[in-house]
Design brief:
Layout: H1 9-30, H2 49-55, H3 57-69, H4 72-83, E1 89-90, H5 92-99, H6 114-127, H7 132-140, H8 211-219, H9 225-233, H10 237-240, H11 251-268, H12 278-292, E2 297-298
Antiparallel strand pairs: 1-2
Helix pairs in contact: 2-3, 6-7, 6-11, 7-12, 8-9, 9-11
Bound molecules: fe (ii) ion (FE2) (2 copies).
Residues 117, 141-142, 267 line the site of one fe (ii) ion.
Main location: cytoplasm
Cofactor: Fe cation
Binding site for Fe cation: 117, 141-142, 211, 234, 267
Length: 299
């Protein structure tokens, strides 16, 4: 069993910063009202990537690297690397505590730790009377970020996800950054269908690799299919928010994508003034976790 990689504190802090900036970038783009007080920026401020490079350099540099390096062959190698689930043995709550080490000390605006983000999303779903599996999904949806502790670089952990092996939608954020992706040279990968068949279903499509795909693999045997689906596609913004890639989706996707859309507001929901009280909530969530998961699972 692999031990957690010795990742330096600086690397974790940098990972936390990117992760936090990326979350806040998504909130600005898709739920501007939620960040109106936090960051007073117009809705379309980051459409123009030239100015984004100077205005929000960390996020745009992150995307430049992500779009360049997430090739079909990279995705296939990551899938092969993590399919065996032989890296860690760890409980769900343990993974949440692990992620809490991803705190960015250098950023005074960092509002929530990872565990608080998870709890806040779950609490909002609970208040809305969502089914228990949905509350649990909100709680654990980002746990795939333990990839940071396995030594993966930021561009291979976070960022919104997109299909590889076919042409990129121009609704993906910063589409111009795909110019340096080597798959651009391969004609077969540059048609709308690429290596896929029409309406083949997204589970046959290779998505850019990150915390979504990884966690979906980890929890597959334990949660209902809707939950696994939400986890796998929660960062697939060009599909669930922009309506792209329907030519690859089948009827099952059309049905299940609705759950991703129900989930998304809980993911974007964030208010720093009501940080959840972790110790008070812990008993409730430990019971909920135990309904679906054994004490430890393989990662
Ligand atoms: Fe996420
Ligand atoms: Fe999230």
């Amino acid at each position: 069993m692999t031990k957690l990689a010795a990742v330096s504190t600086e690397n974790l802090a940098a990972a936390a910063k990117t992760s936090e900036e990326w979350d806040s970038f998504l909130r600005q783009k898709y739920d501007p009202a939620s960040v109106a007080e936090e960051v007073p920026k117009p809705k379309d401020a980051f459409r123009d990537y030239e100015s984004a490079l100077t205005e929000q350099p960390k996020v745009s540099q992150f995307y430049a690297e992500n779009h360049e390096k997430q090739t079909l062959s990279f995705v296939l190698s990551q899938k092969a690397k993590y399919a065996s689930l032989d890296k860690l043995t760890m409980g769900i709550w343990e993974a949440m505590e692990k992620l809490n080490a991803l705190v960015d000390d250098s950023d005074p605006d960092t509002s929530l730790t990872q565990i608080e983000h998870c709890l806040q999303a779950a609490e909002a779903a609970r208040r809305d009377g969502q089914p228990r599996w949905m509350v649990l999904t909100c709680l654990i949806h980002d746990l795939g970020k333990v990839l940071f502790f396995l030594g993966e670089p930021q561009w291979a952990v976070v960022g919104d996800t997109f299909p590889v092996g076919c042409r990129w939608s121009d609704k993906i954020v910063y589409p111009d950054f795909f110019a340096r992706n080597l798959d651009r040279e391969k004609e077969r990968l540059q048609t709308p269908l690429g290596i896929y068949e029409e309406h083949c279903g997204l589970d046959r499509v290779h998505m850019s690799y990150g915390h979504d795909e990884y966690l979906a693999t980890v929890v597959k045997g334990y949660l209902p299919e809707e939950a696994v689906y939400i986890i796998r596609y929660h960062s697939f913004y060009s599909a669930h928010r922009e309506g792209e890639y329907r030519h690859l989706m089948d009827e099952r996707d059309e049905r299940l994508m609705e759950w991703v859309r129900k989930f998304n507001p809980y993911d974007l929901y964030s208010k720093s003034d009501d940080a959840p009280k972790i110790e008070d909530l812990k008993p409730y969530y430990q019971e909920l976790i135990a309904e679906y998961f054994p004490e430890k699972i393989k990662w």
